[in-house]
Amino acid sequence: MLLYILHFYDKDFFKIGVTNNIYRRIRQIRDNFRVSIDLDKTIIVTNTKQSRTKRLERNLLDITSNFQYQFPDELNIGAGKYEFRELNCQKLVMQFISEQENYKLNYTVYKGLDLSGQYNITIPKAYYPIDILSNFASDILINDLNNYCTHNKLSRRDFFNELLYEKACQLGIDRSEGIVNYDNYYKYKKK
Predict the structure, then answer these.
(1) pLDDT by 10-residue block (mean), the chain, 191 residues
(2) HSE (CB half, 13 Å, CA atoms) of 154?
(3) What is the residue-wise DSSP string for 150-191?
């Protein structure tokens, strides 16, 4: 289990929460709230004891309760909306997390989230991961591609990402890496 502090592009709020699968949680938040997550500014906090992670989340939500972000009433948003906070309390959150070191609670803080994790990929990480659904091609073609991937020990996901990136480069579409060193980022590992 990990604690996340998700930041978003062009938004004046962030979200505090815990999860066992950060990739799935990010997809849920992206789909439910229609936001783009800023992985470079996102903060991940881990601890070997699950109870400490949950307690830290509860404490952070309590001390920032006066900064709860108010979504417009007409938006029908689920229960997760109560974990969003205004950006102006970010220093308070970071100060509280850093003070936990005084109590020897052994939290590890990562500034940044690398969703591609340990994958050996050749495309810029800013483009990864790309969600691909199989309903865009015939069943026969998908079956042939699956056989190719199995024979070459590739995941279908990596195959499609490489293929789409190669085509994007042919079209003149490319994104230079904004951040080259991902070493201090939390690395997502598929379970």
Answers:
(1) 94 95 86 84 94 96 96 71 94 96 92 73 63 63 84 81 83 69 76 57
(2) 16
(3) HHTT--HHHHHHHHHHHHHHHTT-----S----TTSEEP---
What is the Cα–Cα distance from 126 to 39, expressed in whole angstroms?
Answer: 9
Only one residue has tokens 């938040």, namely 29
The whole-model pTM stands at: 0.74
- Residue-range domain boundaries for the chain: 2-114, 125-170
User: How far is Cα 154 from Cα 52, in angstroms, rounded to an integer?
Assistant: 38
Strands (E), 21-120: 43-46, 84-86, 108-111, 113-114
Distances (CA, A) of 160 to 77, 117, 146, 165: 33, 17, 11, 8
- E strand or H helix at 3: strand 2-7
